[in-house]
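Handout, section 4.2: multi-component inputs.
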Amino acid sequence: MPMSLFATMLICCLGNPIGGDDGIGSVVGRHLKRVLPKRDFEVIPEYAGSALDFVLDLDGRQKVCIIDAIITGRYPEGAVRLFTEKQICRNMKSGCFHGVNLSQALVMGRKLKLKLPAIVQLIGIEIRPVSSFGEKLSPALKKRLPAICADVERKIKKLHSG
Amino acid sequence: MKRTIHIEPVTRLEGHAKIDIFLDEQGNVENTYFQVVELRGFEEFCKGRPAEEIPRIVTRLCGVCPWPHHLASTLALDKVFAAEPPPAAHKIRELGYCAHMIESHLEHFFVLGMAPDFVVGPKANPLQRNILGVIAKVGMELGAKVIQHRGYAVEIENIIGGKSTHPVFSLPGGVSHPITAEQRKRIRELAEKLVPFCELTLGLVDKVILSNPEYMALLTDKNMYYHNSYHMGMTDDEGKLTFYGGKLKVMDQEGKYIAEFKGGEYLDHVAEHPVEWSYLKFPYLKKIGWKGLVDGKESGLYRVAPLSRLNVCSGMKTPKAQQAYENFFNKLGKKPVQNSLAYHWARAIEALYAAERLRELAADEDILGKKLRTLCRKVEGEGVGIIEAPRGTLFHHYKTDANGMMTDLNLLVATSQNYGAMNIDVRNVARALIKEGNVDEGILNMVEMAFRAYDPCFSCATHAALGRMPMQIFIRDHRGNEVRRLGR
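Output:
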């Protein structure tokens, strides 16, 4: 295992490029890839893999953060929320349309004694439900993009140094 | 008092759907509707775009069916652009696709369908009817093997496709890159591991279902999880099962072939019937006609996917899968097998076939060929691409203008072709199990098992919200008042 895998924080950004606001995770990911130092952060702006693939990709990592759109209806559009693994697992109790959700994959990975990182966190960006295809962010989310990027960047740096 | 039971959202399938069960005055099932409640409009989104972009765009339809869409799309464009791929390109496409079939079938078998419903149990606590419950039952060692071997298939998808979930390698007229000798060596190593694992998976059907009289009774029941339909599937020139590059055959209820056609002729054989209560249309056999959600020879409804493919083909091209195929029909009787739960068994046989075929293709010297593309000779035209997706036959039908821009696009997906069958099965199971208003979690799961056997994929455009995704059943009287609510 290269030493860099232990030193760097893996940031997996999720987003459908033709899903309108659902692509916000990847939009923010491209910003992070530009601004974060490579020696400390490995950013994948368009992570492509299921939850089962994800736990295998965590092998040997120490710190991992996922960035994705969320729809809770509890926060304003564009709000950036940080969820710990405990919160992810507590909030994702039932089935996922994709079979195994992130929570189940993490619990399963730990049960099977895979070498998972001690810290897995999720940064969620609140969006409104997406009902049609599109390659652009909605005007409302686009307007908030600089603030969202700055907020995510701040949270990531704090996680890395913490 | 009349009442209605809603199951929404239904679980362990791809996409958004719900089931409404209408009870009569005595509490018995009057009717059921398995509805698709999302509208996607993907076809409209693609119109006016350069045709060569479509294979990359369609992989975003959902995270579960990207490979079939990617390849059906390029197969359609091979025809639009009059660019028949060289043999090595076809073989590379098929090799990558076999890896995808293994990955998809293993995931459904262990995570979505067979294992949660039969290993954990159809009436088990719903919180345990998932992969974690399966691991608790089968043990850590097998659980780890499932993850590891599924991972091997994903590694091959990555080698061939560039990305496992959203492949980018297939192009009109061929593929984008060759396989190196080193990559081929690795694929062969992985294939050697996948074949015995798929045998082990198939062995679980024997161990869990065939050896259990209660489950065998369910599997062979003729009142539920059963109906008399036509079947459609792809075969090669010798009539053997293939997922890629073959023609389609349709078998009737007596085992006779009633149609054989190439992708480009599908509109002569298949039509779609819209209904007011669902966004999904019901495909049916044109020559038989639409008779509603009923089975039998007079009804044009047909089925696709693993069970249909085994019914329609004359055998398997690989030895272990052929043996499993013979065993399947020896145990379940003459063709066509109409028991819907047999889809799980057929799926395991197909996974073994895909592993053996993968091993065969990886050993083929042609796979290292360097001539991988044919130049496109025109940009205006029409083409149909067909492929056997894990969930059944998939059609992509494209038309382009003189500038190579998409003017028309029609996708006929596997799940829609099984939509009529799923509705009939849901209704049959609900009628058989819900009596005098007695309904519980176990029964509702057994209703869901009726469609889950088909491995449906209604595909999600958005991620589920972070938070508890409710599985709620509303029971209402005939005025629509809620009289009871069940939640998961």
